[in-house]
Amino acid sequence: MEKIFDCLIDSYIDNQVGVTENFLSISLSAHLKDNLISLFQNKKLVNAGVGNKIIVNQDKLIRSDVIYWLDRKHNNQYENDFFDLMDNFVLHLNSTCYTGITGYEFHYTLYETGSFYKKHIDQFKNNGSRQYSMIMYLNANWKIEDGGELRIYHEDTEQDISPSNGKSVFFKSSALAHEVLVTNKQRMSITGWLKI
Ligand SMILES: O=C(O)CCC(=O)C(=O)O
Ligand SMILES: [Fe+2]
User: Fold this and answer.
1) Residues with CB under 5 A from ligand 2 (ion)
2) Total-model pTM
3) How many domains does the chain contain in total?
């Protein structure tokens, strides 16, 4: 596990965006995806807003995904396995990089066909607690023609990342603008932030 954590952190240090395959095991990813699909079928996912609770602007022209917050209180085995993994990652990150992360928040995200999230920065203007953004993808057999890439805007280049199964992406929430390109297929993930 530490090897995968180091791979993510090293690629973050080299390129401002950490990317690693197999952050989630095939079985954990499959269980989380099944859980997400059943929550979606039971109409538990809600429109994602833009901004935080003080400035909520549910603007479907900016983003059209639906979300559901993970919580240990759900007593769901796989959500808890995911939180155990994140606890280990945060311990490793804090001890190797002195990041001082004290908390996190994660939600399931589902983009239906035709959905997107326009260019934005994750850290709120009125609250700087989000330090690092992290996304884990739950899409087996994702193909180029399925679209839905995460596009990251570097100073002079754009980086497109396909949302393929088990992959994790990690970057500083205040630093990099990014967007989710229109997806041609249902696109599932867990998105979250490490906080101070
Ligand atoms: O799903 C992704 O690739 C990125 C999602 C995102 O940018 C966000 O939820 O803030
Ligand atoms: Fe984002």
Assistant:
1) 122
2) 0.94
3) 1
DSSP H helices in the chain: 2-15, 26-41, 77-97
User: What ipTM does this complex have?
Assistant: 0.99
What is the Å distance from ligand 2's center to 133 Cα?
A: 7
- Which ligand is closest to the CA of 183, given by its number? 1
Whichever domain contains 44, its CATH number is 2.60.120.620
Question: Residue 59's pLDDT is what?
Answer: 65
- Range of the structural domain that residue 188 is part of: 2-195
Residue 189 has φ and ψ, to the nearest 5°, of: -160, 170
Q: How many Å lie between the centroid of ligand 2 and the Cα of residue 24?
A: 20
- pLDDT tens profile 93-129: 999 999 999 999 999 999 999 999 999 999 887 888 9
Q: Which atom of ligand 1 is nearest to the CA of 169?
A: 3
